[in-house]
């Protein structure tokens, strides 16, 4: 019996969590585990830990499969990453950083940055081919007009996968941040000030209360 310690992390954006069922399969060079349920509730910015028991050592873990099942209503989930600790103490990291929607299975490679020529296992070669085929299917080109550059073959950004729309979500978050900053400056007397600053020290009393929070939030 071989026991693997698994930690699954959810992204920290507001809607990243889910109440759908998430399970995981570990894929190693010597075999794969059974599908094991992680949890039915994930909160933004939180982690879930579990043990995956296997009848034998799986060898180096090269892939994981995340399975998402809809219980009642669809509830998208943003997976940050997965960490797997083997029985011998070796830690494997699987950066995910993507949305899982509907009933789906997503395969994530171990995050060691290998090239095509480094894929010695047939399962890794097959995974790379499936990933390439999926991208070619998702991102097709069309001619908007004669003489114009080609563009994506979609009528609206809403037709794209949520992982492509992620920048739009970040833009909304940034807009909210600007509103918060504007309110902070207004309350501190900065926006309505009609007279000149008397000294640099007076300016610091305004910005020290906001910039300190900005820097901490960005880091």
Descriptive notes:
Strands 2, 3, 4, 6 and 9 form a five-stranded antiparallel beta sheet that branches. Strands 5-1-7-8 form a four-stranded antiparallel beta sheet, with no helix packed on it. The chain contains three helices and eleven strands, in the order βββββββββαββαα. Strand 7 (77-85) and strand 8 (91-100) form a beta hairpin. The model is unreliable at 210-219 (pLDDT under 50). It is 26% helix and 32% strand. The protein is of the alpha+beta class. It has a domain at 2-112: Lipoxygenase-1 (Sandwich).
| Unreliable runs | 210-219
Main sheet summary:
5 strands, antiparallel
CATH architect. name of one domain: Sandwich
Number of helices: 3
The tally of beta strands, per DSSP, is 11
Measured between the Cα atoms of the first and last residue, the distance is 42 Å
Give the helix/strand class: alpha+beta
- In N-to-C order, the SSE pattern is EEEEEEEEEHEEHH
Q: Overall mean pLDDT score? A: 81
How big is the Rg? Answer: 23 Å
In percent, how helical is the residue content? Answer: 25-40%
CATH superfamily of one domain: PLAT/LH2 domain
What is the third-level CATH name, the topology of one domain?
A: Lipoxygenase-1
Q: What is the 3D shape?
A: extended
Protein name: LOXE3 isomerase
Pathway: Lipid metabolism
Pfam family, one: PLAT
Organism: Urocynchramus pylzowi
């Amino acid at each position: 019996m071989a026991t693997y310690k698994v930690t699954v992390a959810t992204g920290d954006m507001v809607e990243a969590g889910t109440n759908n069922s998430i399970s995981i399969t570990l894929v190693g060079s010597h075999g794969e585990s059974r599908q094991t349920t992680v949890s039915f509730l994930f909160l933004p910015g939180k982690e879930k830990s579990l043990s995956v028991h296997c009848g034998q050592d799986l060898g180096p873990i090269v892939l994981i499969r995340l399975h998402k099942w809809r219980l009642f209503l669809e509830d998208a989930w943003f997976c940050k990453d997965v960490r797997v600790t083997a029985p011998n103490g070796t830690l494997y990291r699987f950066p995910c950083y993507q949305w899982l929607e509907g009933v789906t299975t997503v395969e994530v490679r171990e995050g060691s940055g290998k090239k095509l020529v480094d894929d010695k296992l047939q399962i890794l070669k097959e995974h790379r081919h499936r990933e390439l085929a999926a991208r070619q299917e998702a991102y097709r080109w069309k001619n908007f007009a004669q003489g114009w550059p080609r563009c994506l073959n979609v009528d609206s950004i809403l037709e794209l996968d949520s992982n492509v729309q992620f920048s739009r979500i970040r833009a909304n978050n940034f807009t909210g941040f600007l509103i918060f900053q504007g309110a902070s400056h207004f309350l501190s007397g900065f926006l309505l000030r009609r007279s000149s600053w008397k000294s640099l020290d007076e300016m610091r009393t305004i910005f020290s209360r906001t910039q300190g929070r900005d820097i901490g939030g960005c880091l």
